[in-house]
Amino acid sequence: MSHAAAVLGSKLLLLFLHVVASIGLNAEQQWPVPYRRFDRRPDVDSYCQALYPFCPTGDPDGRIPYMRDSDVVSVYRLQTPVWEFKYGDLLGKFHIMHDAIGFSSSETGDNFTMEWYELFQLGNCTFPHLRPEVSAPFWCNQGAACFFQGIDDVHWSQNGTLEKIGEITGRQFNDMARWVQDDNETGIYYETWTVRSDPGPNASVWFESYDCSQFVHRTYRKLTELGAKLSSRSQTNYTKIYLYSGEPTYLGNDSAIFGQPALENLATDIRKFYHAFRPHQSFIDLAFSLLEAYKKVVLDKSFYLYYNFEYWHLPMKAPYMQITYEEVPLP
Ligand SMILES: *[C@@H]1O[C@H](CO)[C@@H](O)[C@H](O)[C@H]1NC(C)=O
Ligand SMILES: *[C@@H]1O[C@H](CO)[C@@H](O)[C@H](O)[C@H]1NC(C)=O
Ligand SMILES: *[C@@H]1O[C@H](CO)[C@@H](O)[C@H](O)[C@H]1NC(C)=O
Ligand SMILES: *[C@@H]1O[C@H](CO)[C@@H](O)[C@H](O)[C@H]1NC(C)=O
Ligand SMILES: *[C@@H]1O[C@H](CO)[C@@H](O)[C@H](O)[C@H]1NC(C)=O
Ligand SMILES: *[C@@H]1O[C@H](CO)[C@@H](O)[C@H](O)[C@H]1NC(C)=O
Ligand SMILES: *[C@@H]1O[C@H](CO)[C@@H](O)[C@H](O)[C@H]1NC(C)=O
After folding, report:
1. From the CA of 200, how far away is ligand 5's center (Å)?
2. Which sequence spans correspond to the domains of the chain?
3. Which residues line ligand 7 (CB under 6 A)?
4. 5-21, pLDDT tens digit by residue?
């Protein structure tokens, strides 16, 4: 089949899927699409190899120390520019920030850092690998919580934020710890993108990201639910990476798309789409990839989003992609 015919074929298929979606499933489609929870976290495929070990100083079994009920535990808001260890605060200027939460026990004087991040870095969670021997793009996209002893004051405060935002009891801390372990076991993959219909205040949200700042917001909400009062003297802003599109169309999972000859055009299109954006190890490569992605998306007005281990087609529209640093107030 010629390229033009293949493109036409996949356009027709998308149109078909869209029509099917709008007559059948659309009535029940819930937006934003709920992030899928799992019964338990699966083992990581051995193809995925971390350049930097995940959570090197945390407890190997993810245990969180028990606090006495009567303890008073301070809660800190922690924020620092991403990749700071390699690129100074360059990304801080673009406000690509990493968020975490700190705790310190007044009874023992011990303090701790808790964060949620990618097992194989941001590039691997944003773009898949195209492996010659596997037809479906291959994702190393797990993310997880890391709890470890110590708060590196200089690391957080020098180019970022270290601010005490409240106090909780030891009992509230222990309740939160149980919740974190369950959240960590059931929410297993990282999602970089938030997808909305436009940048305005009344936009439809099609997909929510699932990243370090979302974990921080969930934890703050949980602490509030447990009775904590949190407050900050400064504006609490967070990084969001947006895509803008019309109503998305559901395409299917790996076996539905890549296991069926009938959908070969779509499978080829998805592989082609991701070819330009293979995950990279250096930030410079990733930045170029994002630029390339931007150009492609603007020209083709098309994006294949992988969410809940399923593909969706996004009919992209201006301004296509944006990185913002916007306020999300404490609960
Ligand atoms: C991304 O995944 C690939 C494939 O496993 C791996 O070789 C690479 O080290 C990962 N990148 C980082 C930064 O961990
Ligand atoms: C979360 O899961 C990861 C991956 O299995 C594990 O390394 C980590 O210790 C867990 N963290 C917590 C706080 O349970
Ligand atoms: C803060 O940023 C400066 C300038 O980029 C850098 O030299 C310094 O190492 C950073 N501080 C920390 C604690 O990483
Ligand atoms: C955490 O503990 C270390 C070591 O005792 C101390 O240097 C640091 O100031 C503490 N940080 C906070 C925010 O409590
Ligand atoms: C958003 O919706 C509200 C309530 O329906 C309306 O009052 C407001 O004018 C809308 N704002 C924009 C920018 O469309
Ligand atoms: C993929 O989707 C099909 C239905 O389209 C479903 O039957 C199958 O269980 C799904 N596979 C996985 C691994 O979720
Ligand atoms: C924080 O967010 C608010 C509202 O979302 C915005 O007006 C403000 O400029 C942001 N602050 C910074 C430092 O970007």
Report:
1. 9
2. 3-327
3. 235, 237, 325-327
4. 555 555 555 656 555 55
